[in-house]
Structures are given as C-alpha cells and as structure tokens.
Amino acid sequence: MSSPLDALSEAIESGAGLPQIARAASAALGADVGLIDAGGSVLAVVAGSPGRERELLGSGDTVTELSLRVAEATVGYLRFRPRSQLPEPTVIRMVSTLLALEVERTRAPERAGEALVGGFIGAVLDNQIDDRRNLIARGKELGIDLEHGASVLVVRVFPRRAAEGDWQARALTVLARGARSAVPAALAALRDDHIAVLVPGADAALSLRAAESALRSAESAMTGFVVVIGRSRVAADPMDLHRASAEAVLAANVATHADESVLLSFEDTGAYRLLLPAMSEDPAELERFYSDTIAPVIAYDEQYGTELVHTLETFLDNDGSMAATYKQLFTHRHTIRYRLERVKELTGLDVGSTDGRERLGLGLKAMRVLGVRAPVGPVFEPGAEGGRVPKPRATS
Predict the structure, then answer these.
(1) Cα atoms found within 13 Å of the Cα of residue 20, Cβ hemisphere only
(2) Local structure of 225: helix, strand or coil
(3) Among residues 245, 292, 305, which one has the least CA distance to residue 124?
(4) 199-257: per-residue pLDDT in tens?
(5) DSSP state string for 46-97
(6) What span, in angstroms and rounded, lies between the C-alpha atoms of 38 and 69?
(7) What is the pTM of this model?
(8) Helices 167-182 and 204-221 meet at what angle, rounded to 10?
(9) 311-327 pLDDT, tens per residue?
(10) How many CA atoms lie within 13 A of 56 on its CB side?
C-alpha cells in the first residue's frame, strides 16, 4: 500500500495537474492546503468547506505559510492548516520541495512574453509562415519544439452570469498552467473569441492528457463558468497546424451548446466532421444555410423567452417521437406541438416530413459548427412549467 508521499510523487510524475497535486499534498500533510504563485494568485485550494477555505487564505494564527523556492528564487507559497497534529518537519520539507518544483515547471516561461507567444500562435494557426524551418526555429525561441508536429486545443469560456474583472486573462493563465502540467512546453494565447493552446509532439495520448489537465484546472479555479475545449488530431507536419486549428475550432463549436464544461476531440464529432470543408473553405454558404433554417428560430427564442430550439433538438434526437420528447422535457404534449408548429411557421419546414426534418437537422448542425450558442434562460411561454397549458377553446 503506497504512502501519501508516494501518492504525491505519482501525481506529479503523471502530470495530473495542480488541483489533483494539491489534493495529494493535503493528504500527505493531513491539512487544508492552499497553493499561491509568486504574484499572489491562488493556484489551487483544498479545504473542507468554503469557510475553512476563507480562513486558510486569510491571516489566521493557525495557518502556516512557507515560501516555495527553487534555487534562490521564490516561485510561490504554500499555506496549510493541520486538521489535527502538526506534520513532521521532514514531511513538510519534502512536500514543499515537490510543490516548488511543480509550480516552477508549470508557470509561464519568463523568456516568452505574452505578445510574442500570441503573435507566434496567430501566425502558425493562420498559416502565415510559409517556411517550415523558420516556423520550427521561431517556436524553439519560445521554448516549444514543433519539429515532430503538434496538436491544437481551442477553449471557449462562458460565464454563467455577468462576470466582473478581466476573467479572460485569468482563464488564459489557468488553462495554460493546466496544459503545462502535462506538457511543460505547451503555449497558449488569447485569440478573437477563444484561447488557443499548442501542444507539441506526435503523441495523441499526451495531447489528450494536456487537454484533460487544462479542463480540470479550469473547473477547479473558475467556478461559475462553463469551459468548452475542442481538441484536434495530431498534425505530424507543423505546416499543417492551420488545418488542426480548424479541427479544434469545429470540435469546440459543436460542444458549445453544452450546459456543463466539456472536452470534445475532433475524432468524436461524428457526422459534423463532414462539414469541416464547408466551414474552412466556404463558411458563407454554411452561414446562408443556417440563416435559412435555424436563425429565425433562435431569434424568436431570444425575443420571447421560449425554447423552440431545445424542443426541436430533443424531438429530432428522439427520432420524431412526440411521447419521448414531452417525457424528456417534462412539458405537456400540447406545448410541444405548439412549439413545433411555431418552428414550421418561422422556417417553412415541417417536422412531420422527411425533408423538413433533414433540413432542420442540418440547420442545427450548421448552428453548432458555426459556434452559435442557443439562448439559455427562463421560459416565459404559457404552459412551459409543470406541463400546464391553456386548454384549447371549444369550437362551435
């Protein structure tokens, strides 16, 4: 049976990420634990309750703070409060040393400024570097070796409610640290509407581990946000990374409709993969198809607080079964019929016909491939709650 210190070492060796490593350190010390970087940002916290977490990060007399040092440099701080007896000094020293090395390994390389990294990632993913040797050389200057290829992660972060402060920059820091826990040379940058991460190497399993570690870090540090990660296949030639970027964008867009944080790999996007050429080569045609089908339905949902898109998706997912749809949505069948009739009025497409269902289904796929997020909010439609709908008036 392995000891808590063995478990901590194994977590670090496996690239488990700072949240899991902090949990292992907590077990080894028998204490609530907080990891803080040199700039004062909280990296990970393990405490039994929100109150204990506030006390741990406060200035109580029962909390011990140690500097995490590598050589002569302070890379962060360990705060801990024993749950019972104080740990042995040897254990504290071993844990703090291991944590210092891990924090140092995962922090952003100081030699690679944010602007330089962002410019390089943009140039690579936008196919602006036409010489392979130049691309590899520029990458090595920033600490990333792309000679044997790489994969791309595209991350979208959505606040569940209005968020204050520069949370996009915080998300970049958290996700970059998470990816580097598994692949220390990974680089990340903010792009127009997402965060892009370059994961060097030809090992698809390592790429997946970096994505999983990034997601765990975001879920731990960014409560109140939905994090969606799309992962490309490995591009063996770095000159193909712009195509890998398109794969990751498609995967992230397909997963964007999720209400919970999720990681989706390009290989798992199913039939959506067939729409990648349309998204990459002729997005205007894809946008026209979306506009002719689902766009009016989304606009209606946004204006009137209805759930037409969600109802249509559920109906099609249930192979057009009305009974399965209203059971899944816990909504009266009259409301479901009303919503589908409204879809027909808005689009001219009837879910009762094969052609109508096919076109509407493709419209929903186009919506996801384009990264359009369907409205999510309270439904004000009469009869939407508890299956209650107004009784139809009797006709004479």
Answers:
(1) 19
(2) strand
(3) 245
(4) 999 999 999 999 999 999 998 888 889 999 999 999 999 999 999 999 999 899 888 77
(5) E-SSHHHHHHHHTT-TT-EEEEEEETTEEEEEEEEEESSSPPPHHHHHHHHH
(6) 10
(7) 0.60
(8) 140
(9) 998 998 888 888 999 88
(10) 26
